[in-house]
């Protein structure tokens, strides 16, 4: 869909690795947060794959598990509004 997404932890040190956010590039130098994906003692090392139907997100959860989230494109597009 031509949009650059970023899966990341917040830059606020008090929340660092305690939340995982989905953001999109808003302009050439800033991102807009679309959704807080998860909150835990630690959520880190995110990665995602985007295809015409879904976005799949995987990340480390509390240093002991790997979590997976899948959104369909209709839901992802609804976050853009």
Helix/strand-derived category reads mainly beta
Report the β-strand fraction as a percent range.
Answer: over 45%
Q: Rg to the nearest angstrom? A: 13 Å
Which runs of at least 5 residues are low in confidence (pLDDT < 50)? none
Could you say how many structural domains there are in total? 1
Helix percent reads under 10%
Shape: globular
Structure summary, number of beta strands: 6
Order of helices and strands: EEEEEEH
Cα separation of the termini: 14 Å
Instruction: Figure out the total of helices.
Output: 1
- Widest sheet, order of strands: 1-2-3
What does this structure look like?
By secondary structure, the protein is mainly beta. The chain has one domain. It is built from 1 helix and 6 strands. The strands form 2 sheets. Strands 1-2-3 form a 3-stranded antiparallel β-sheet, with no helix packed on it. Strands 4-5-6 form a 3-stranded antiparallel β-sheet. The two termini are 14 Å apart. The mean pLDDT is 93.
Brief descriptors of the model:
81 residues; mainly beta; three-stranded antiparallel sheet; 58% strand; globular
Concise summary:
The chain has 81 residues and is mostly beta strands. It is 9% helix and 58% strand.
Secondary structure layout:
Elements: E1 5-8, E2 19-27, E3 30-39, E4 43-50, E5 54-61, E6 65-72, H1 73-79
Antiparallel strand pairs: 1-2, 2-3, 4-5, 5-6
